Amino acid sequence: MTANKIGQLVLAGALFILLSAGPARAEGMKTVRVLENIYTIVHGDGIDSNTTFIVTGEGVVVIDTRVNPAEAAKVKEIIREHTDLPVIAVINTHYHGDHTFGNQVFRDSHTIIAHENVQKALRGSAGQDHLDRVKSFGITGLDEVTVTPPNVIYRDRMELFLGGYHLMLLHPKGGHTDGDTIVYLNELRLIIAGDLVSSKKIPYMGDAYLDEWINALQYIEDLDNEIIIPGHGDVGGKPIAIAMKHYLMNLRTLVKDQLHLGKNLKETQDAVRPVLKEKYKDWANLKRLDGNIERAFLEYSLKEKI
Ligand SMILES: [Zn+2]
To answer: Which pTM was predicted?
Structure first.
């Protein structure tokens, strides 16, 4: 048998496996049953933002919608494996495209809920600018995106009582963005933290404020909870929020030390990068370290001047 024929057979076999496994899904995409009727879709090819869905007695609540309509359609498909009930509400934990660019797929729920600053960030030209920025990261499937901002907004907190579930939407005054929402199911001691918590991944800090973020993580830690669903990475408990807080505290201390020595940004990056790289060598996204250091440098050089 020629190598070409073997190749064709392997390909045919792979195709069969793919077809018999149902529609193709992003590599590594995995549905985790967190509690009865509560599922989180974790990991995925490239963009790995988590989506959680709660199958309530009245319908499904979806928290975050992934990065593009195709990914969101996969979420819908997975929901259909668990229930025939309609999606009755969507919650966005913050405005970033990897959590909101699938919103349009759930428009028939008529209810997309988020903090008021998420609507500001996604409405009109701001939303288009954000889409263009995310496109510049080379993510596929974005040409099909119609930016769909939330149509139900809140300022301080909001509570939903749906089909036997009580969801508290809490806004911890910023951190990862200025419109972060923590979804807290206190009876179940469960928190859906959005990107305030990334599990074993260096976070994106493009529009973050460290002090606020550390406070938000302390707030999460102080809530009575046992299970934390992060924005990226595996579901865990309080240790994943504490690890995130320690990462940000380390970043803050190291950058402030350099500022006090009068170092410039490049010198600060060269001094801090290797320390964090060693300490967090088992975390993903180490290439984000320089950006994180820059963000901290900016925040504290401005604060020190005041
Ligand atoms: Zn984010």
So the answer is: 0.89
